[in-house]
Amino acid sequence: MTSTMIPVKIDYSDPTDLYEQVAGQIRRAIADGEAKPGERLPPARDLAAVMSVNTNTVLRALRVLRDEGLLEFRRGRGISVTAAPEHGAVQHRTRELVEFARINGYSIEELVDMVRAAR
């Protein structure tokens, strides 16, 4: 398993939260093939130093990407890319749909029925 440094560009004048910018840039690096499944990312503190942001900002971005299914955290082995962005995007959209359904009063079971009916 190899490690890759991801070129991340942060725009401090952009109103988008820094962690979202970091997550977006890493997502893009994965989509562009700069970071492939199986490759390890540098430690968060190294990424933070390169990007001139706080380590907690990078950690928050990495957790978002882990929750999307793009990264895997393994104790003693670091953080590695696990999937292509398409997989992560589907998981992300699924979470958004579940939240949207909840806000509008639908249960998970009702949502599942709607998804099955949409096939």
Features:
single chain; 119 residues; mainly alpha; Arc Repressor Mutant, subunit A; three-stranded antiparallel β-sheet; 3 strands; 8% strand; globular; transcription; DNA-binding; Tscrpt_reg_HTH_GntR
Low-confidence segments, ≥5 residues, pLDDT <50? none
| Helix share, percent | 40-55%
- Amino-to-carboxy terminus distance: 39 Å
Q: Please work out how many helical segments DSSP would assign.
A: 5
Strand order of the largest sheet: 1-3-2
Number of beta-strand segments = 3
Measured by DSSP, the beta-strand proportion falls in 5-15%
Based on Cα principal axes, name the global outline.
globular
Within CATH, the superfamily carries the name: Winged helix-like DNA-binding domain superfamily/Winged helix DNA-binding domain
Name the average pLDDT. Answer: 86
- Do you know the CATH architecture? Orthogonal Bundle
Structural class: mainly alpha
Domain HTH gntR-type: 16-84
Organism: Microbacterium alkaliflavum
Protein name: GntR family transcriptional regulator
Keywords: DNA-binding, Transcription, Transcription regulation
